[in-house]
Design brief:
- This protein is of the alpha/beta class and 443 residues long.
- It folds into 3 domains: 53 residues, no CATH class; 118 residues, Aspartate Aminotransferase, domain 1, CATH 3.90.1150.180; 240 residues, Aspartate Aminotransferase, domain 2.
- The protein is built from 18 helices and 16 strands.
- The strands form 4 sheets. Strands 5-11-10-9-8-6-7 form a 7-stranded mixed beta sheet, with helices on both faces. A 5-stranded mixed beta sheet has the order 2-12-13-16-15. Strands 1-14 form a two-stranded parallel sheet.
- Strand 3 and strand 4 form a beta hairpin.
- Helix 6 runs parallel beside helix 14.
- The C terminus is likely disordered.
């Protein structure tokens, strides 16, 4: 008697689609995704990696584990507050609620009283102006780079952008500000040297071809030693006399001075010192969604808003809603992490260390996201074996530690206190996984 090909025993697609758990999953997953999960499970069986009798159970497990997004929530135990690889600033509860509200139909560009079209994102604009009264007007675009591109395009396309050589920085993923600016059709007019630029350098560069003068805060590095730079307060009389806009790209997003970060520039001070336009990010020290913020003189902001490129880089309703809620609501997680109560942070760390039987080490966190380079955020970390880092990253919940000098370090600064028990359980599971793997190798 011929042996039956086991592949003939693999359940058909229509049979698997008819399973109650698969039918129920249509409320959260598309037909295409469900069919792809079925196909992948069937292919495993055809390759002999899965017995046909286990196809149904394997599919149900895959359907249960599949979500509509491939993004995974992560508990940030690195001590880096604005972690670019983790999406920068986590949103406040108020901002999250605003996102949900804005996910439906909302009056983002409509005056409900008159039924007429209104200025887009008026609430976010008003919240920005309330938080930074030094600005006459404000405009929100989709990120900081877009804000810079819009400003240089509207003010200097076909003309020159005067900028110090020491401020031509490279930002994340290899993007360089000179490349961004030149892509707008503007010409860079570099002045000074890498380490020293003087007011006379700017003065000699200004002329009929000048579109704007740009000051860029070198937020992701620091140059010490024989250096000099020209402040906004020094530059402003010069640019005013030549009727040339002075643009300050601050990057990190502080709207007002923060005593914890005394060297970090802020929008209010920059405007008070003579900047005509200030550019900042919404998802860094401000603690909000990804957004590019432009604040400054009303006539220049209006000029930027009228430029055709403004439509291409405008912020969507979700970002506008989250930004307004960030500015009007409770302190966001970024601010809470930067201003963490050190006694409470030590107490939390000691409690978890005692429960796990591991040591506690002094540990300096960082601002991250290109903000306040080299500024330490003193704290503590749990010291674990280096090998536990992998199981922590791939566990549920995923916990991202810092691996340093042969140890896995867990800093609780950026972890909400309500998640401490989840961290504790995750570490216990990761240690068990590590110990089990070690026993298997020894055997």
């Amino acid at each position: 008697m011929d042996q039956v090909d086991p592949r003939r025993l693999i359940p058909r697609t229509d049979e698997l689609l008819a399973l109650p758990a698969v039918r129920g999953a249509r409320e959260r997953l598309s037909e295409r995704v469900l069919r792809e999960l079925i196909r992948q499970t069937q292919e495993q069986a055809r390759r002999g990696e899965l017995p046909p009798a286990q196809v149904e159970s394997a599919l149900l497990a895959a359907v249960a584990a599949r979500t509509a997004t491939t993004l995974h929530p992560v508990l940030n135990a690195t001590g880096v507050v604005i972690h670019t690889n983790l999406g920068r600033a986590p949103l406040s509860a108020g901002a999250v609620a605003a996102l949900v509200t804005a996910s439906g139909y909302v009056d983002v560009e409509l005056d409900l009283e008159t039924g007429s079209r209104s200025r887009r994102g008026a609430g976010a604009r008003a919240a920005l102006l309330a938080a930074c009264p030094a600005a006459e007007d404000a405009l929100v675009v989709n990120n900081g780079a877009a804000a810079l591109v819009l400003a240089t395009t509207a003010l200097a396309a076909g003309r020159e952008v005067v900028v110090s050589r020491g401020e031509l920085v490279e930002i994340g993923a290899g993007f360089r500000l000179p490349d961004l600016i030149e892509s707008t059709g503007a010409t860079l007019h570099e002045v000074g040297t890498t380490n020293r630029t003087h007011l006379r350098d700017y003065a000699s560069a200004l002329g009929p071809a000048t579109g704007c003068v740009l000051k860029v805060h070198p937020s992701n590095f620091r140059v010490d030693g024989f250096t000099s730079a020209v402040s906004l307060a020094e530059l402003s009389p010069l640019t005013t006399a030549h009727e040339v806009p002075l643009v300050a790209d601050l990057g990190s997003g502080l709207l007002a001075p923060d005593p914890h970060l005394p060297q970090e520039p802020d929008a209010a001070t920059a405007l008070a010192n003579g900047a005509d336009v200030v550019i900042a990010s919404g998802d860094k020290l401000l603690g909000g969604p990804q957004a590019g913020l432009l604040l400054g003189r009303a006539d220049i902001i209006a000029r930027l808003a009228r430029h055709p490129l403004a439509r291409a880089v405008r912020a969507d309703k979700l970002a506008l809603a989250a930004l307004e809620a960030t500015l009007a609501g409770e302190p966001p997680p970024v601010v809470q992490a930067l201003h963490a109560d050190l006694e409470r942070l030590r107490s939390r760390t000691d409690r978890l260390a005692g429960a796990l039987g591991v040591p506690v080490l002094p540990h300096d966190g960082r601002v991250g996201g290109g903000g306040a380079p080299g500024v330490p955020l003193p704290g503590w970390a749990l010291q674990l074996p280096e090998g536990v880092a992998g199981p922590l990253r791939t566990g549920d919940p995923a916990v991202l530690p810092r691996v340093h000098d042969g140890s896995c370090l867990l800093d609780l600064r950026c972890i909400p206190e309500g998640d401490d028990e989840r961290v504790l359980d995750a570490v216990r599971r990761a240690l068990a996984t590590l110990n089990g793997a070690g026993s298997g190798r020894a055997g």
